[in-house]
Amino acid sequence: xxxxxxxxxxxxxxxxGRFEFGxxxxxxxxxxxxxxxxxxxxxxxxxxxxxxTSNSKLKNQWDMASGSEVHQYLExxxxxxxxxxxxxxxxxxxxxxxxxxxxxGLNQYVTGDSSNSEDVSENIRNRDLLMxxxxxxxxxxxxxxxxxIETHSNYAPDRFREEFGGLFEAFQEAxxxxxxxxxxxxxxxxxxxxEQEESQAEEEEQKSEPSGPSExxxxxxxxxxxxxxxxxxxxxxxxxxxxxxxxTYQEEFGSWDDALDAAGIDKGELLLEDMHRVADxxxxxxxxxxxxxxxxxxxxxxxxxxxxxxxxKERFQEWRKEQxxxxxxxxxxxxxxxxxxxxxxx
Length: 346
Description:
Elements: E1 10-13, E2 18-21, H1 23-34, H2 38-50, H3 55-62, H4 67-77, E3 82-84, E4 90-92, H5 94-104, H6 117-140, H7 146-152, H8 157-164, H9 167-174, H10 183-208, H11 215-228, H12 235-241, H13 246-253, H14 256-262, H15 267-282, H16 288-294, H17 299-306, H18 309-345
Antiparallel strand pairs: 1-2, 3-4
């Protein structure tokens, strides 16, 4: 049956298997489309995105109880805008597609008929991806980055890369990237945003990290450990008895010896005093073996502190002279006191 010339008529086209509408009816249909409630408008977009589709698939998409409920909804709310093809799949009328093209920015997702089933399948797949990408961009109000696609899209970023070669290419295909923006611009902006987010995350992590003990607290604790142990406190003494670890002191002061200096613990003086005790046993020319046998501390510790064993012995000799010079006035005073006492008592 040939199409009628009646401007208001509805004609069935045997070649396409669809009903064709006259100009005035088309205008009326578009007006009705514009007045669709939000839910019906969204579901019309679902039809465009999913066609050719079925009651079963729409049941899951719309969270309905049955295919019968889907059919009732289509008949009551979207009857003028859909039809079933020869395989009974649900398709969208040309008028509804035109409305989608003009009002939803989804022109590239509305495909025509194709005699090649593989082409149709690819078009449907690409259309589904691109419509999802547009939906994400509309929901967040800007071009989405990879993280936002992960969060808001139904597909992983790699899916868009597989289909279109990259995210930027997918944006171009979707028509949501301005013509003035180049891929280099997009890459630079993406990298800058990533660096900014990493910097902010690092700052937040630093803020959330509990602050360690103050220098004063570390010194006070080391002085306490020094009173508890005999001789020079070792890192192991702090790990065993102290409130903090030796590593904390190394981090704060640079080394364990520097921590001792900060706490007023004169390691060098204690080493020299120990060498003095050994010298009283064996003589001033102390050997390393003698130090290791008679000393509280090893010759290795003294050598490390003073730079070498020779350096330790040289410093010991200097220290002995300093001690003797300090002791002379005291001896003279004691002798004077003793002489005076003898005179008085004599």
